[in-house]
Amino acid sequence: MLFNSFAFIFAFLPLTFFVYLYLGRKQPAAAAGWLGFMSLFFYGWWNPIYVPLLAASIIFNFILGAKISDSATVPRKYWLTFAIAANLLLLGYFKYANFFVNTLSDFSVAHFQLTEIILPLGISFFTFTQIAFLIDTYHGEVKEYRFVHYLLFVTYFPHLIAGPVLHHKEMMPQFSKGETYRLNYENISVGLTIFIIGLAKKVLLADNIAPYVGSVFVQDATPTLIEAWAGTLAYTMQLYFDFSGYSDMAIGVSRLFGIKLPLNFASPYQALNIIEFWRRWHMTLSRFLRDYLYIPLGGNKHGKLARYRNLMATMLLGGLWHGAGWNFVIWGGLHGLYLVVNHAWRSLTKPAIDNPLAIGASRVLAWLITFISVMIAWIFFRAPDLSTACAILNGMVGLNGVDLTAIAKENSLIPMMWTVIAFFIALICPNTQQILARFEPALGARTDDPNAAWRPTFPWAIAASMGFVVCVMNLNRVSEFLYFQF
């Protein structure tokens, strides 16, 4: 089920919300159970056959978590190793079996073939969420351990399909608080506002840009200079507003239920270097990769070369996490290389001189290098295969010719207009948490007077309502979120 659909907005969400509030008045555990049940229903709306898989994964990891937490016979480390291996084997079968067999066929004389395996939605997210839970259990960081709360933690429908990637310690304590299940008008106001902003990002920006992206990134395409740059910029904007729109909608819907999800984006295209970009882009995944891959590999504790090796390994695995294909491996490798270069540059250079003009020029140059580097990497992320990615890169350097009228075609003008609008919004407009900062400073942005909390006015309510109506009027062309495939 999609957030940007009539079924979700006018049926699933109201039913789930009102029954949740009714049960929460007297039986918080029943409200949590209801939310968990409806989350399973939400997941099964796509394909019911995979609900038992998700349920089995939850039961298995909950039982193994208990073993890891209190094992009197088998050493806890063995239980942890077994549990992580089982999770990775499940993920590997569904997500990487076809990739492995096809790669083996490509590099050998024999031909191997495997029946196409359908990838369950969200399997990467709920698998990695549970692996983090098991590791934290082993380290003694899990304090709350009730099955109904664990079920809700894993299946919680706002994040289940495409994140944010959650930590148990920021979610399960919320499930145990009685006030979480009570009606709170401030939560409703904040939640609806964030949801509408996210819906607008998806429906009005990302979906209007999509047609041009599809025409440039089609298999065997040979875009000319202007087409290649315009198409890559369009996808750069489409992906951001599609995924940040989903994250905003997830955070907004969750606030309706009194539960706070972590932020996932903070204007990443305003970053002045790749290190800063990854602190702003898909922030919960960056946190996961840092805590459960980069640091366990050794982080920066054993010198610069070890740090660079660990950065590269982390980003290569992060690329492979996004998808089973060499394009994603190259995308991860590029970002690993970017991070290595960025860290090496920092270690070799001194702070900028105290010249405002020089600082301003260097900031623009730093932003431009970072933005173009990210754009180039997105080509491999989006292209259907390596040959198409190479064709687009050839186009960007003029090897496919130059056609100055490429984006003046009738079917290109409107998507490019939306691309330009999205570009300036991403660069100069406040992000969602900055817009809501005066309502609730804890959302992340600083204010001059954090005690002077902003409250929505009647004109604000009218503007938000009108924005919602415009979005609903555009739901006749519902499209899936890009990150659903991961």
Can you describe this structure in just a few lines?
With 486 residues, this protein is mainly alpha-helical. The protein has helices at 6-24, 28-44, 51-69, 76-106, 123-138, 147-155, 157-160, 168-175, 185-216, 225-256, 274-280, 283-294, 304-322, 326-348, 356-382, 386-396, 410-428, 432-435, 458-473.
Structural class: mainly alpha
Largest sheet: none
What is the overall silhouette? globular
Give helix % range. 55-70%
Q: How large, in whole angstroms, is the Cα Rg?
A: 23 Å
Residue-averaged pLDDT, rounded? 86
Q: Please write the string of helix (H) and strand (E) elements.
A: HHHHHHHHHHHHHHHHHHH
* SS element count, helices: 19
Number of domains: 2
Uncertain spans? 441-453
Question: Could you characterize what this model shows?
Answer:
Mean pLDDT is 86; it is low at 441-453. This protein starts with 5 loop residues before the first helix and ends in a 13-residue tail after the last helix. It folds into two domains: 6-183, no CATH class; 186-265 and 350-485, no CATH class. Helix 10 crosses helix 15. The chain is mostly helical and 486 residues long. The chain has helices at residues 6-24, 28-44, 51-69, 76-106, 123-138, 147-155, 157-160, 168-175, 185-216, 225-256, 274-280, 283-294, 304-322, 326-348, 356-382, 386-396, 410-428, 432-435, 458-473.
